[in-house]
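Chapter summary example.
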Amino acid sequence: MVVRTVDLFCGGGLSSWGAQAAGAQIVAGVDAWDRATATFRRNFPKALVRTCRLSMDSGPEILGRDIGSVELLIASPECTNHSIAKGNKPRDEDSQRSGSFAVEFLRKMGKTAPRWVVLENVAPWRHWSGYSDLIGGLEELGYHYETLILDATNFGVPQSRKRLFVICDREGKPRLPTKGPTTSLTARDILCDDPTWKEGPLYTPTRSPNTLARAEAGIDALGKGVDFLVVYYGSDKAGGWQALDRPLRTLATLDRFGLVRWRDGEPTLRMLQVPELVRAMGLLHRKPARGPSVPFRFSDSCSRREMVKIVGNGVCAPVMEAIVKSLTTTACARDLPRSLAA
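The structure predicted for these 342 residues follows.
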């Protein structure tokens, strides 16, 4: 069975990368950011790609043409205005409602609505005042659903990234994904070297005192000569650094982590680079039916900052792969342990 798939709020296509690994055929992607859709188009050249902002009025007509049958819809509505990272800053109501845009899109599909739906967002999404109405809308459309908070580390990803998934099936209770490898990968597994990457002494006259304080906390805890990661950007409530022998903490949309290494007895610092962030999202090379494996690629128009944003906004591909496999396989899958469920 060919599982034809539409990806709303598709970003650069990390969810679709995982869905395709599970056997899905990506037929369309929609996002408001042109750099994201350009990246999506590069990774899925046969898919219909639209750059536009979704709303409560959006339906299949925004695709511009009939794309045929669709068996799966995946969507990652805007998350910034639900995230704890937003703090006490004002919340944009229209952005908060973006999950409802996906439900209205399904409603406008009518009888052609897909059997399966997967919605993804940050865990606090379920505390949004409109969340129960969103779930009610899915039920009105005939969907059975399960909600799960999944941590990417349980699916072979070297990053601790917990996200809420609403998994839906029109024909009955949706089958849930099973855990992946029992041995977790760590931050050390994402590291690679390139002599062109900028690296310099930790101690410089222009280095932020806050950065130095976080780095020195790591040195005090681990001892001299032990490499580790330091939080370079943003607030942190976990000490401002982390060891390399555990999964990377959650990536954000801006440069967040620097690598402190020891060279000839002195500490150096460089930022984690895009290829390392790609590894941290589980974006493994894709193996097509014919020819060599294909890496995830960004649009040539993307700056480094924009690449980091695309990665930080994405869904870890192996998690989506496991979800889509569990939904579309004909064999019964075991339910997740309840400790992993929402």
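To summarize the output: The first strand starts at residue 3 and ends at 8.
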